[in-house]
Write a structure and sequence with these properties.
By secondary structure, the protein is α+β, with helices and mostly antiparallel strands. The protein is about 20% helix and about 20% strand. The chain has one domain: Cyclophilin. An eight-stranded antiparallel beta sheet has the order 2-1-10-5-6-8-7-9. A two-stranded antiparallel ribbon has the order 3-4.
Length: about 280
């Protein structure tokens, strides 16, 4: 009887070689006996799944930030008022007083440093309809106005907007920023009462402040618009013109958001600084 030997790698003995190469030198099986393409689709699926999971994780984090903000805002209505005496001899500063240490006599330059780039704005002190709101914004940003810091239970006089977030983008037409977790809207030692009428025509690329709801006191949040006559939920007072940074503002308001307008990728405001031209 004629016996034909089997090729090496095809024997059925226990411990035989299951990872042989073809005559062309291309490996056709893995050590476990699987085809060399068997795991490739699984790898692609894993990468796709990872992207989806990252997106979902980002949405969940954004929704949690939104929930935390709403909780802070609602809780501030029921928290006891500060028990420590307000700082003595403190009064609201005018825009001229708040910026008297800045060198120069020209318009006031504002730099809002964000994690996506710097927003450059300009305050015109010669416009009386902007000076009261601008003074409120500048004194908060420069730490010239005391506010109640709930984290340490004391009055703080430090930059109010440092290390905060752009917490909401509305209809791709603007965004809200400036609400530290330690402070509430009603926790300022010296609130600012507006005597001028709010503007009805809101320019594009404008930095401004809003009234607190139901009062004539200025809010602590600031707004930056991306379009003309943007609809806002409270009277609006323009502070500065930011057209120089229009492309960055457009990019920010077109960021991916949750259904409530909360940016999926957190956008931080690290510092707001001032100078004169």
């Amino acid at each position: 009887m004629l016996i034909i030997p089997l090729p090496s790698g095809c024997r059925g003995e226990k411990g035989g070689n299951h990872g042989a190469s073809s005559s062309s030198g291309v490996k056709t099986t893995t050590e476990e006996g699987e085809h060399h393409l068997a795991k490739k689709p699984l790898k692609l699926l894993t990468e796709e799944k990872s992207r989806a999971l990252l997106l979902q994780e980002g949405i969940e984090q954004a929704e949690q930030r939104s929930l935390n903000y709403k909780h802070r805002l609602n809780a501030s209505q029921f928290l006891p008022k500060p028990t420590l005496t307000k700082p003595k001899n403190e009064r609201a500063l005018s825009l001229e007083e708040a910026t008297k240490d800045l060198k120069g006599n020209g318009p006031i330059k504002v730099v809002i440093q964000t994690s996506r780039g710097d927003i450059l704005c300009q305050i015109d002190p010669s416009k009386p309809e902007t000076t009261e709101a601008a003074a409120h914004f500048v004194t908060l940003a420069r730490g010239q106005k005391s506010w109640w810091n709930r984290r340490v239970s004391s009055w703080a006089k430090q930059p109010f907007f440092d290390d905060t977030v752009i917490y909401k983008i509305f209809n791709r037409k603007g965004f809200y920023g400036g609400f530290p977790p330690e402070a509430g809207d009603s926790q300022l030692a010296i609130p600012s009462l507006m005597t001028t009428a709010p503007t009805k025509k809101i320019p594009a690329y404008t930095l401004g402040m809003l009234f607190q709801k139901g009062t004539k006191l200025l809010d602590t949040n600031f707004v930056v618009t991306a379009e003309h006559n943007t609809f806002l939920d409270a009277p609006f007072f323009p502070i500065a013109e930011c057209a120089e940074s229009g492309s960055l503002i457009d990019a920010l308001v077109n960021s991916s958001t949750t259904g409530d307008g909360i940016p999926i990728e957190e956008i931080r405001v690290s510092k707001i600084s001032f100078s004169r031209q």
